[in-house]
Known about the structure:
By secondary structure, chain A is an alpha/beta fold. Helices cover 28% and strands 29% of the residues of chain A. Chain A has six helices and ten strands. In chain A, a hairpin with a 2-residue loop joins strand 9 and strand 10 (218-224). The longest helix of chain A is centred in the C-terminal third of the chain and has 18 residues, at 174-191. Chain B is of the alpha+beta class. Bound molecules: adenosine-5'-triphosphate and magnesium ion (MG).
Amino acid sequence: MEKKILMGVQNVSKTYQMGEVKVHALKDASFELYEGEFVVILGPSGSGKSTLLNILGGMDSPSEGRVFIHEEEITDYNDKQLTVYRRDHVGFVFQFYNLMANLTAKENVELATEICKNALNIDEIMDDVGLGDRKDHFPSQMSGGEQQRVAIARAVAKNPVLLLCDEPTGALDFQTGIMILSLLHKINRQFNKTVVIITHNTPIGEMADRVIKMRSGKIVEMKENVNPMPPERIEW
Amino acid sequence: MRKLDIRLLRLLRNSKGQFISIAMVVTLGLCMYVSFSMTAMNLKNTVDYYYELTNFGDIFAQVVKIPESALDKVKEIDGIEVVQGRVSFDVPLKVEDDKEKVRVRIVSLPDQEKRINDLYMLEGKILEGQPKKVVVLEQFAKARNITVGDKIAAYINGRVVQLDVSGIVASSEYVYLMENEQALLPAPEKFGVVFVSEEFAQMTFGYQDSYNELLIQIKDQEKMDEVVKKLEERLDRYGVKRIIEGKDQLSNRMLTEEVKQLDNMSKTIPLLFLSVAAIIIYIMLTRIVKNDRIYIGVLKAIGYGNYEILSHYVKFSLVIGITGAMIGNGVGIMLSGLLAQVYVMYYNLPLLRSQIYYGYMVNAILLTCIFCIFAGLMGARPVLGIMPADSMRPEAPKTGGRILLERIPWFWKHVSFSWKMVIRNIARSKKRFVFLVLGIALTYGITVVPIFQGGAMVNMFTLHYGEFQKMDYSIDFNKPMNRKAMIEVKQLADIRYIEPKLEYPFELRTGWRKKVVSIVGVPRDTQFYDFTNKNQGSIRLPEKGIFLTAGLAKVLNVQEGDLITIKNFIPGKDDVKVEVKGIVEQYIGVNAYMNIVEMENTLTEKGMITGVNIRSKDRVQEKVKDIKHVAVVQSVDDMKNSFLQFLDAAKYSTGVMMIFGGILGFAIVYNSTIISIAERSMEFSSLRVLGFEKKNIYQMITKENMLMTVVAIILGIPIGYGMCNGIAQAFNTDIFSIPVFLTPDVFITAAIATIGFVFIAQLATWKKIYGLNFIEALKNRVS
Lengths: 236, 783
Ligand SMILES: Nc1ncnc2c1ncn2[C@@H]1O[C@H](COP(=O)(O)OP(=O)(O)OP(=O)(O)O)[C@@H](O)[C@H]1O
Ligand SMILES: [Mg+2]
């Protein structure tokens, strides 16, 4: 199967000015993301993982370098265009779920879908994430894993081409973490979505099509797995 | 419904108390706006309609005597449309109680179809061409229990004349029934008006085929000045006493003032309330946005734009505002109906033209929207600075550090631990502190006003009658007398001291400014008038020259040392120029004062007096009533008493103002305390973990509020003073000028009231603190 390029990252750097000090959060990163690919970014804390993810998702712009989606350069986008890009092309999953406290599970998903064009059927998605019967519950009535599944539903229901997850299992126990990973895996395979996951846990890399390792703002290693392991078999 | 809107509604539901208290402030403000504006409008329309219905005159002229035949000449003056003559005299009414002095004005009605100042028949019939049949003005009839079929008797030229009451009427000329400008309040049981046939009046008063008053309608209001000038010349030889333009007519002027005041109030107070509501909303939103930082980041990450998120928060503000506006409109309309009724009753207007002006409701909503959108945008502005990536970052830690006071060791050493925390907390949330202090200060100011107002009226009177005028009685003759009349008065009662008085209306002029006032002539060494100047204190009447009351000086725009012209209405007397020798303070009435000798010489005749002032403990009223030509005997005590009755009515408005101030104060304190609790739930939780009880935390907040209340009250003193001054300015009329003397008890009373409001608001937050789930707060911090 021929791989189609979804995103291109060319010589991207990000520098934060903290008073006198310059923090080089990201240094000269270049790589491509393919359609339907499952990518895991690994690296110690402060190595620039979130920075990279944010730039991919149009949440932040790089200090240098260019980022493309298909043939379009998103680094050229203005604020409005970036908003549209996030709305129609990207789904985010956060470490701490970040659901709206006073909206029900279903409403949280609808919050995302009602502003985009090609949204999927919400009820089906809720069933897919296994929360068909918890739709009307508020976040405070759900466990962390359940909340994260709602967050995933929220991200997927928009029908984005790209699913970005910043430590989606970071706040969860092992069992629940595996369940979330399987869900993401399923979505990746079933809907052919490109999924990028950030994690501290090296073993998670084994389920990826490709692992990107980072250290001190640099991509230090890029490794393809010919036979990714199914998430159920991962242990840490 | 959009999910963000659902979130909004739930957010509002979760902060019901705040929602209600802010909406209430808006409600109050708009309720006042709508009801005051509408009542002012309805009142104005009612009066206009009443005037139209009764042909209210444009000019009223008083002359000594003018023959009927001369009226045609007057009518020839360019610009004059209709001229009507009438005879009008004030005479004593015969009443059962000898001590009581009641006066009636007997006014003739022309036998004409379309009368100027026509009457509005309420009961019975008009005259029917029979002499001695009279119709009586409603207010007077009511006050004295006169009904159709009764007989009343008046002293006319020394004889008792019986009159049959054939009807009760209302008159557009006497909506506000006062004898003259010197009267301060309507006293319908002491002064009334009866209308008689022209024939009868002319016969009784010796005015065959002549009149002493002219009612005039002109063609073009623009040409008023011209017409008045020509009229003055034309009437000169008939002894013109006064020419009064419709706008200066006593009753009309009082009505106009009232409408104006109502209108002014409708424009100022609501703005104050809306501003307070807007500030509370602003503070509340700032805090909500701060708490929502991560959510806002998420929304942005999901693909919501700034516009959508901003409007989410602006809607929050709008929902509160519009809810308040709707209720305010509704209540305002009901209240305006009620207010109009009250005014109609108070002024004895025989009819009411009232309608709902939807324009004011639209204005009210627009105004609210502007305030709320502004407050919403300002409050939610930080949304713009929140990046989508912020959704991933935990909250930035608050900056801590030493506060200024800690650098003053001797102070800091003597402060207990709990007070240290209180002071640190205040110092670290300056914005909220400023808001709360200003809010309470404002509440305090608003509370000072009604307390001051209540006292101001009493002050005004005690100052006028105790400090400025020191006589016990003042007697007015019904025509100018020789000085010898003093002797007669002296013989009849036990009088300690007596002074002559010469009081006469003149027109004072400088340039185009003019004003008809009574010039009062008293001896230079008067013991009854204490003239005081704002800067110099007591001053003595000059040999030559004139004193003007401060209000009059303002109207004429003159200062000490300026020359003014006194236009003399007395036939055969010339106008004179005199120097203003002093501007004197007088809280009630507008007058000019002169040395009586000088006044006799230049303005009237030698040896002439119009009344006397007396110091006496005797029952003067009883004793002098038989002296011929005594028109009025006024006792200062009586004046005070009649005034105190009037004050009772004013107490209601004082109470209402206090309640409004209280609601404002409640909204401010309640909201800022709730906000403070929400902002600091983390801090409180930590304190709880450290072993603090809920009680301790509540005490801490109470202490904070206490400290701020004290600061606020200190700050509120000048605010209150300023507001009182403003109110006094706004309420100053030609006749009253409210003295701004604020005694400590006003401030103390207001302080107690304010502390009460703060206390109530504090109690209302008690539940919030005790209901706060501290563990939840700690947990929430993670997500
Ligand atoms: N807004 C910011 N301002 C200044 N410095 C920042 C900002 N965001 C990130 N940094 C810095 O950039 C570097 C990379 O941060 P980033 O969040 O990408 O790390 P990370 O790999 O995601 O770490 P973690 O695993 O702890 O989440 C860090 O040194 C961080 O302090
Ligand atoms: Mg990170």
